[in-house]
Amino acid sequence: MSFVRFTTGELRAVGRSVRRSVTERGPERETAVQSLKAAAAGVLAWALAGWWWHAPFALLAPWTALFLVQDTVYRSLVSALQQFAVVVLGTLLAALAGIVTGDTLAALALALPATVLLGTYARFGAQGLYAPTAALFVIAYGTYGPMDIVHRLLETALGATVGLSVNALVLPPVHDRRVRRLRHQLAAESARLLTDAADRLAERETADEPDDWDDRARWLGDVLTDLRAARRWSDESLRLNPLRRLRHHPDREPADSPPPAVADTAWYDITDRLLALMRSLLDVETHPGAIPPDALDPLLAFLRGAARAVGPRGEQGPDDGEPTGLDAARRAHRELDERLASPGVLDPEQASLLSASGHLLAALERACSDAAVSR
Question: What angle separates helix 73-101 from helix 213-238, to the nearest 10 degrees?
Fold first, then answer.
């Protein structure tokens, strides 16, 4: 029964993925498009090599084309160069082994160890696997003549050209959707964290279980790490991509493009300051007397103003006469400073809270003045 449930669940998941690939933009559609492009490249390469050219080793052209429709145009070009170099070396080593030994088994015993070791060379990347594969093709067919080798290399070059051309000219892949999603997630989760902290402190009750503000603030750092990787992937997908000029066209809607990479730098500072502030708030929550009653309201106003300042665009409230989140956070922080500093001596929790909130405010001011928090 468990196997049946597993199979049914997998089939439903596949069905949902197929439906999403047809009805909405997303990773499912991108995967489907790339798969169809690879299949089309293989068919086209066979039509050129086998049907039109009547090449003696026509299989090599579609075999190469299929695997060169990579996730980015730049990676297709790099893989094409790597694979061609690997196939040349594997073919030459196999031909030499066949000529020297004159026996299939002996040639395999001589060529495969060398080509497998060659395939582990880091510069060849994943394409290194094709060194022993090319050697197997050469030795298995038993054709080592100069024209045979030339035909193999020409068919491989044809397949590489077809695969690269199809990937670059037919819906070239661009991977920036994850960048937009992670940038929005950073802004939304930061705002939610600040708002939840304000709501919890407003209750003025001791929590039955420790709040997870610290863990949530650290998790934002993980999201930032994912954003860094997604940004590299997005930048690579635009290298040598014919769509690059279109994506920077002045008539292009800003929402269609991810925020510039320079905007990410502000988040390194903001997430660090958020983590320090959440730790200070945890200390305040576990010491109910650390914040005087008259200082609670400005503290809550600061947290909610900072949440509006850092939150996604369009979720920051109206702009008609109402102060921005950053302005509200500034005023609230000045009032908080006055309320806590009026007795003259700050408790350690109060000093830590003022320092952490001030650093977060400074980070938000720098981000907004540089227009870096452009969700």
Answer: 70
**Residue (of 167, 319, 182, 191) closest to 243 by Cα position:** 167
Question: What dihedral do alpha carbons 33, 38, 39, 43 form, nearest 10°?
Answer: 130
Tokens coding 248: 């920077």
The 10s digit of each residue's pLDDT in 144-165 is: 888 988 999 999 999 999 999 9
Residue 118 and residue 225: Cα distance in Å, rounded?
34
CA 365 vs. chain centroid, Å, equals 28
Confidence (pTM): 0.80
Largest interatomic CA distance in the chain: 97
Please return the burial class of 299, using the count of CB atoms within 10 Å of its CB with bins 0-12, 13-18 and 19+. Answer: buried
Residues contacting 176, CB < 8 A, separation 6+: 234, 237, 257, 258
**Which residue blocks in the chain are alpha helix, DSSP H?**
2-23, 27-46, 60-67, 73-101, 104-119, 130-141, 146-169, 177-203, 213-238, 244-247, 264-286, 293-310, 325-341, 348-369
Pick from 111, 100, 120, 113: nearest CA to 139: 111
DSSP 58: T
The pLDDT of residue 375 is 44
